[in-house]
Design a protein that fits this description.
This protein is an alpha+beta fold. The chain is built from eight helices and four strands, in the order ααβααβαααβαβ. The protein has one domain (about 5-190): NADH Oxidase (3-Layer(aba) Sandwich), CATH 3.40.109.10. Helix content is about 45%, strand content about 15%.
């Protein structure tokens, strides 16, 4: 499926086939392709908790307002925005830039200072915004890639974040902006036509607000 078709045909599916699993190699391909998503300074501040076991999905469902699709989908991904990823990934990113010729090796310290000024300290609201924004880019890339690979998805923010962190041992300094159900549509389900979308004239401003 080409990228425009995937964007046009992607829907948020509520009813997954609980008897159809996602092959491990397909899931690996999906996550690997999605990891090509852009991020500020290429710092990739995301991590993913893959929830597949029936008992784990049952626990996750209780954290997600008891929504059945969490348990019916063969895989649910917990998107984790990690403010500390800037520190974890910065050295590798700068080494890569230097090796590939993006920057001169002696510029690495300069870029370290730039990232600190741009994104603040790990516990700042500035850093939280940075992590969430970039994790959202990864998540959207994943949903489009999933459609291209013949899978359906549903992004969710109807959940108790503290509950998910507790049940899945996610550190308190991380942020869970969404979870994504992934799988195949339940047989016999026919999707309704796509609901309301604004005309671009309703939200596009030319030149200024």
């Amino acid at each position: 499926m080409d990228i425009l078709s995937a964007l046009k045909e992607r829907r948020s599916v509520n009813f997954f086939d609980p008897d159809r699993n996602i092959p491990d190699e397909l899931l690996q391909e999906l996550i690997s392709v999605s990891n090509l998503a852009p991020s500020s300074f290429n710092l990739q501040p995301w991590k993913v908790v893959v929830v597949q076991k029936a008992a784990d999905k049952k626990r996750l469902r209780q954290c997600a307002m008891d929504q059945p699709k969490v348990e019916e989908a063969p895989v649910v991904l917990v998107m984790v925005a990690d403010p500390v990823c800037a520190e974890e990934n910065l050295e590798n990113m700068l080494d890569s830039w230097a090796q590939l010729g993006y920057i001169k090796p002696e510029m690495k310290d300069t870029y370290k200072g730039i990232t600190k000024n741009l994104y603040g300290s790990p516990d700042s609201i500035q850093r939280a915004y940075f992590a969430i924004k970039n994790t959202a880019l990864f998540a959207m890339s994943l949903m489009v890639a999933a459609k291209g690979l013949g899978l359906e998805t549903h992004p969710m923010d109807g959940f108790d974040e503290d509950c998910i962190k507790k049940e899945f041992r996610i550190p308190k300094d991380k942020i869970v902006p969404m979870i994504i159900c992934i799988g195949y549509i339940k047989p016999g389900i026919k999707l309704l036509p796509r609901a309301f979308r604004r005309n671009i004239q309703d939200f596009v401003k030319l030149g200024s607000w």
